[in-house]
Design goal:
Low-confidence stretches: 42-67
Largest sheet: none
Helix content: 55-70%
Mean pLDDT: 75
Order of helices and strands: HHHHHHHHHH
Number of helices: 10
């Protein structure tokens, strides 16, 4: 019995469909295999497959598995805290309390103020005062002291105001430090003797003058 043409067309279509299905299955298998190759290795085999993994996939996998380091927050010091610093008003109150006059009973317990007993004389000319204060604080130069010692000599009839002579025998028996100390004392005594000699000349001039000024002599 001859086949019908309609059946032949049907069989051909069915064979084509089966072939297409096989191709689709093969493509599906190949895609699944390629996807499994792109999956990053597990932690146990990470060291073995790192070289074969594409660089981009390695970086993505590393970013996903990197532990986040917690941010360290430094403590901030509040510089505006003025709890321990007194304000201007508090300082004024403290100053008023310190300057407040004490009671008479407390003052008697403390005793007399020694600074209140200091008294000064009448002022001298400022040209003289500034020079005397400079000599007191800075002193005289070595050359100036030597000149004054040579100018104001010890009076011939008043030799006892001079510094005593150092005994050579004692010098040989004492340490060097003691000798230097005594020489320093001797130098100071010589300077004082020169000052006394200068004042003695002024007093002697007033005594020999016909117009004596008793206040100046005193």
């Amino acid at each position: 019995m001859p086949k019908r043409k309609g059946n032949d067309k049907y069989d051909r279509l069915m064979r084509k469909l089966k072939k297409i299905e096989k191709k689709i299955r093969k493509k599906g298998v190949s895609n699944s295999d390629s996807e499994s190759e792109n999956i990053p290795p597990s932690s146990s085999s990470a060291g073995e497959n790192t070289a074969a993994t594409p660089p981009l996939l390695v970086e993505e996998w590393t970013d996903l598995h990197t532990e986040e380091v917690p941010e360290v927050i430094e403590p901030q010091v509040d510089l505006t805290n003025t709890d321990t610093v007194p304000t201007q008003g508090e300082q004024d109150v403290i100053s008023d309390e310190l300057n407040e006059q004490l009671d008479l009973d407390i003052l008697e317990i403390l005793g007399e103020d020694p600074s209140s007993d200091v008294k000064y004389g009448s002022e001298i000319r400022k040209e003289l005062a500034c020079r005397l204060q400079h000599i007191t604080t800075a002193g005289l130069t070595k050359e100036c002291r030597k000149e004054l010692l040579g100018k104001y000599l010890i009076p011939a009839n008043c030799t006892h105001i001079d510094a005593p002579k150092f005994n050579p025998e004692i010098k040989a028996a004492i340490p060097e430090s003691s000798f230097k100390r005594d020489k320093g004392i001797e130098l100071k005594q010589k300077q004082m003797a020169a000052v006394i000699s200068g004042l003695g000349q002024i007093i002697n001039t007033q005594l020999n003058s016909k117009d004596k000024n008793n206040d100046t002599l005193q």
